[in-house]
Design goal:
single chain; 189 residues; alpha+beta; 3-stranded antiparallel β-sheet; 5 helices; 32% strand; binds zinc ion
């Protein structure tokens, strides 16, 4: 999954290398900023790849490993929402259907539960400790030429996402845009 994202990222870097201001957008996308999520949409042939990357803070309200019951609930809620792309994304045109969903929320999940018992945990709230959550969605579209727009419906479910920076690219063009709760549709045409 990571490989695929890097591949997309590289593609877009090459595609955009000539455009100075888009390069600046790209630098923005590299930052870990609370309140900001990042979305990359690549349309190639009949395939649409959507890669979401966000500070865990935006999705669960913390960035350490979930310990308390409420923290674990928050992680499960976020994971379940991220695994529901039919709720998160609505396509206009293109006749797209979901092929694959993959969510990586491991940065805020305790790997070894035995660690929970009897051990004193290091404090992880010193501001140096940042974690990200990522998700990847792949769609097959019968006619990507007819794909006019994608609405990103995550601002209500995740109110801590104040803005989402979007990079999107097709075989012939690329653009960057910013979404928020009032303006949540990426228009390709
Ligand atoms: Zn952070």
């Amino acid at each position: 999954m990571k490989m695929q994202f890097h591949h997309l990222f590289l593609l877009s870097s090459i595609a955009m290398a000539s455009t100075g201001n888009v390069k600046a957008e790209l630098a923005h996308l590299d930052a870990h900023v609370h309140g900001l999520a990042e979305l990359m949409i690549a349309i190639e042939g009949q395939t649409v790849d959507i890669q979401l990357q966000s500070p865990a803070m935006n999705l669960v309200g913390f960035e350490h490993k979930a310990h308390s019951e409420s923290e674990i609930d928050a992680v499960q809620r976020a994971e379940s929402l991220l695994n529901s792309p039919n709720l998160l994304f609505s396509f206009k045109g293109g006749q797209c259907s979901l092929i694959e969903t993959s969510v990586d929320i491991s940065s805020v999940l305790e790997n070894d539960h035995s660690e929970l018992d009897g051990h004193h945990h290091e404090h992880e709230t010193d501001g140096e400790h940042h974690n990200e959550v990522s998700a990847h969605y792949q769609y097959h579209c019968n006619n990507t030429d007819e794909l006019a727009a994608v609405s990103v419906n995550m601002f209500n479910d995740f109110p801590d996402i104040k803005q989402t920076r979007v990079l999107w690219l097709t075989e012939s063009k690329q653009a960057a845009t910013t979404l928020d709760s009032d303006n949540y549709t990426v228009i390709f045409k």
